[in-house]
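Table S2 (text version). Query chain:
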Amino acid sequence: GRVVALGGRLDDFTAELTETFAEPGSQWQYVSIDTHVIGMVVRGATGRSVPELLSEKVIAPLGLEHAPYYIVDGSGTAFVLGGLNMTTRDYARFGQMFAQGGEWNGKQVVPADWVTASTNPTAPTAEGQIGYGYQWWIPVGAAEGEYMARGIYGQYIYVDTARDVVIATNAADRKFREAG
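Corresponding structure-token output:
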């Protein structure tokens, strides 16, 4: 937060990180900066910004009601670890597209095999704890096809494909990290 507040580049901060909390592959723990690294890799591989790619590949096909708002660092690079702001209805539209196997209005927006792979609990989380796929959380005791996206302070997209349910919420819960 300090780097960004002072106009710094999140990429520079990320590249300077050298300390680890465990040997690679020995323990899983969600770390937001890892998601930013994914964005750095995508930008490096494509030569395009994440908002540009997301707009072309996902947002335009979904026909969102309002353009997303991105939080950016001092160089104007959009965060990937958070900071994608959309209306609740547009978050729900994104969730519905995933619930439909990546399809929206007859067009395959996200490959169906990616939807399946990304929403399965593949991270080695502790027994009895929330599961994690590829950027999706899987609730404890979830049935197949039940998963969610969650943002800090209470933004959620909950998907239950078996029941054909998608629930999206936006919130400002400053006690998000507290139990209960």
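Notes on Table S2: The chain has two domains: 1-86, 87-180. The first strand starts at residue 69 and ends at 70.
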